[in-house]
């Protein structure tokens, strides 16, 4: 399990995509074939247990992949589900 961060806003709590993008290279290091150079996660993801979302990652070897993640609770903790190569 990985720990995410949430930001409270006017309409509720949203995932802090910028902090998640900073955490993914470390959190996903054991499951990728090359170090992660950068990550891009969607903004506006509501923090709800069970919510699934994806982030695009760029590996140091130049390949891009999609990391599929799921929120495990209302505190924005998440788990890695799978990785799929982008074509």
Whole-number tally of structural domains = 1
**Proportion in helices:** 10-25%
User: Regions with pLDDT < 50 over 5+ consecutive residues?
Assistant: none
Mean pLDDT: 87
Give the overall shape.
elongated
> Could you give the count of β-strands?
6
Distance between the termini: 28 Å
Strands in their spatial order, largest beta sheet: 3-4-5-6
How large a portion of the residues is in β-strands, by DSSP E? 35-45%
Q: Order of SSEs, N→C?
A: EEHEEEE
Q: DSSP helix count?
A: 1
Radius of gyration: 13 Å
The largest β sheet comes out as: 4 strands, antiparallel
What does this molecule look like?
The chain contains 1 helix and 6 strands. Strand 1 (6-9) and strand 2 form a beta hairpin. It has one helix spanning 17-27, and strands at residues 6-9, 12-15, 36-40, 52-59, 64-71, 78-85. The protein has a 4-stranded antiparallel sheet, covered by helices on one side. A two-stranded antiparallel ribbon has the order 1-2. It is mainly β. The protein has one domain (6-85).
